[in-house]
From TrEMBL:
Peptidase M16 N-terminal domain segment(s): 55-162
Family annotation (InterPro entries): Metalloenz_LuxS/M16, Pept_M16_N, Peptidase_M16, Peptidase_M16_C
Residue stretches in coiled coil: none
Organism: Singulisphaera acidiphila (strain ATCC BAA-1392 / DSM 18658 / VKM B-2454 / MOB10)
Name of the protein in its database record: Putative Zn-dependent peptidase
PANTHER family linked: NARDILYSIN, PROTEIN YHJJ
Keywords, ordered alphabetically: Hydrolase, Metalloprotease, Protease, Signal, Zinc
Family as reported in the entry's similarity comment: Belongs to the peptidase M16 family.
Signal peptide bounds: 1-22
Ranges of residues in domain Peptidase M16 C-terminal: 199-303
One Gene Ontology biological process: proteolysis
GO molecular function: metal ion binding; metallopeptidase activity
Length: 441
């Protein structure tokens, strides 16, 4: 899927400080600095009013994902993500995924990453208190039954079948990803089918009750809200929830299989041949993160050379959803062999990362990634159209420890020497893995 009564505010010890996020006030546009709050039970809260917004995005991010799955239980976090939005909570009833998506016509999402799980909804601002109460009920009183597991297990299995086989453009990327960032402990992104088939209701219930709790969560509200009113509503719904147990450290990915190739057969006779190169990306705390972003910005800017049809995105670098890798994909041209297609991708990478640093490339990267990383000032009228993106970006920046102001300084002072280091470390020949979807055509 990509998708309690509280104490008065003034009696609770809250830490409220503005975030350093690169947003500034200007004479022509109005921007707002988000407010940061920490409840006694450990819940981190970010509140970002957006002027003239008629709706609100609510994101709950748990700092637990696939890397935390126990050995032999890959897909546990993925299964819990499904259960978290469909099982009964509080006084409510269980619901199907279709009912969940149907309720939130302006948008909703549920997804699992390597080290996070997100549940998000977008709703009219008049519904704020009701939505917070429901989110709190799902954090504090989720009532899982065997019927919930029976309903969601086939959906999880269908999703991973799409990820690794049925949809070639996803399959080639995910197989290459598994080579360059192997899932810890012999698992697989989203879960191995045999592991998912063996997960029990009792295992899910225990894990949810321990870890999917306030001390391990970030809650973000963005949209048509008054900060003081939103703060009081969050406290009312979440302050009395028990904090939960600290999440055990995640397992580290297995060793990258640089230079390896995985060749797969397309499941559909209508499928077209697909090729992918996957590269490791640096952690945001790395001193090479800023020069890597400059190179990634170049790749995005030049990706039209690889587009085989309108709407395709040859460069995969969702720097908050899946920040550990960068993938480059294309379809086979008429008459090409698989090796020729892969060589064409390698040639594109080499010619794109090779040039010396241009005079304005740091600023270009600031603009290219500004919405996600907060490195550009965006006026509220632009943010109204993607409130989920605003809330999700704030949640992930908080989790990853990304300071937009510090990142801006790094981008504005990137040197050619740093760019060359990043190119050698991450994009040198042999520093990638390859996957190829072959067809009968």
């Amino acid at each position: 899927m990509r998708l309690c009564l509280g104490m008065p505010l003034l009696l609770l010890p809250l830490a409220c400080t503005p975030l350093s996020n690169g947003e500034e006030s200007g004479p022509a546009t109005k921007t707002t600095v988000p407010e940061w709050i920490s409840l006694e039970n450990g819940l981190t809260v970010l509140i970002r009013p957006v002027e003239d917004a008629k709706e609100i995005a609510l994101v709950v991010l748990y700092k637990i994902g696939g890397d935390h799955d126990p050995k032999g239980h890959s897909g546990m976090a993925h299964m819990i993500e499904h259960i978290a939005v469909t099982a009964a909570a509080g006084t409510g009833q269980a619901r199907t995924a279709e009912e969940f998506f149907g309720r939130y016509r302006s948008g909703c999402n549920a997804q699992t990453g390597d080290r996070y799980t997100v549940v998000a909804t977008v709703f009219p601002k008049a519904d704020l208190k009701d939505e917070l109460r429901e989110a709190a009920a799902r954090m504090g009183d989720l009532r899982l039954t065997s019927a919930d597991l029976d309903r969601e297990r086939p959906r999880v299995l269908a999703e991973i079948a799409n990820m690794f086989g049925r949809i070639p453009s996803l399959s080639v990327l995910n197989h290459a990803r598994e080579l360059i960032r192997p899932t810890p402990q012999g698992g697989r992104k989203g879960g191995l089918p045999e592991h998912i088939a063996a997960i029990t209701r009792e295992e899910i219930q225990l894990r949810y009750e321990r870890y999917y709790k306030p001390r391990n969560a970030i809650l973000v509200l963005a949209g048509g809200i008054d900060a003081a009113t939103a703060r009081a509503a969050v406290v009312e719904s979440f302050a009395k929830l028990p904090p939960g147990q600290e999440i055990p450290p995640p397992s580290e990915p297995d060793t990258p299989k640089f230079g390896s190739l995985q060749e797969l057969a397309a499941e559909s006779p209508q499928a077209q041949a697909e090729a992918c190169l996957a590269y490791r990306a640096p952690d945001p705390a790395s001193d090479l993160y800023a020069p890597f972003l400059v190179l990634a910005s170049r790749l995005w800017a030049g990706s039209s050379k690889l587009e085989s049809e309108p709407g395709r995105a040859p460069i995969y670098f969702p720097l908050l959803d899946d920040p550990a890798i960068l993938g480059v994909t294309t379809r086979r041209n008429r008459g090409e062999t698989s090796r020729q297609t892969l060589d064409r991708l390698e040639a594109f990478m080499a010619e794109t990362v090779e040039p010396k640093l241009g005079g304005n490339e740091g600023a270009s990267a600031q603009q290219a990634f500004g919405f996600f990383l907060g490195t550009t000032r965006l006026p509220d009228p632009l943010l109204v159209t993607n409130l989920y993106g605003v809330a999700f970006s704030l949640a992930r920046r908080e989790q990853l420890g990304i300071d937009p102001a510090r990142l801006n300084r790094a981008l504005s002072t990137v040197t050619d020497q740093e760019l060359r280091r990043a190119a050698k470390e991450f994009f040198a020949p042999g520093r990638h893995a390859e996957a190829w979807i072959k067809t009968k055509n």
